[in-house]
Amino acid sequence: SDGSIRLHQMTSEYPLMQWNGSTKGQPIIALQWALTRPAVFFVLDASSNIYIWDLLENDLLPVAKQTMPSERVVTMTLLGEPEKANGLLGIVLAKESGQIDIQYVKKKWALP
């Protein structure tokens, strides 16, 4: 609820990494690991901002941020085929109106 993200290992109650205020205090609505690239995850906050984290490129801050200005995004999920090396990765965004938007991610964040 405060925008903090914690990365845990299953064998410990303490986080391996913790990023406080990663969304400048906005609650996190959804967080998903990339299906095709293990070090990348996506975060959606309550202000319809999408943050892309690539832990191999930068483990302190997101590598990109995209604001969805037209309408509030209420949830997101990822689509892709992890068993294929084509690097196709998409973000499915559900908007408040019920509209669904699919956007494809740049190859540098999708390739295995």
Automatic annotation (TrEMBL):
<dbReference type="GO" id="GO:0045503">
    <property type="term" value="F:dynein light chain binding"/>
</dbReference>
<dbReference type="GO" id="GO:0045504">
    <property type="term" value="F:dynein heavy chain binding"/>
</dbReference>
<protein>
    <submittedName>
        <fullName>WDR60 protein</fullName>
    </submittedName>
</protein>
<dbReference type="GO" id="GO:0005868">
    <property type="term" value="C:cytoplasmic dynein complex"/>
</dbReference>
<dbReference type="GO" id="GO:0042073">
    <property type="term" value="P:intraciliary transport"/>
</dbReference>
<dbReference type="GO" id="GO:0005929">
    <property type="term" value="C:cilium"/>
</dbReference>
<dbReference type="InterPro" id="IPR036322">
    <property type="entry name" value="WD40_repeat_dom_sf"/>
</dbReference>
<dbReference type="InterPro" id="IPR042505">
    <property type="entry name" value="DYNC2I1"/>
</dbReference>
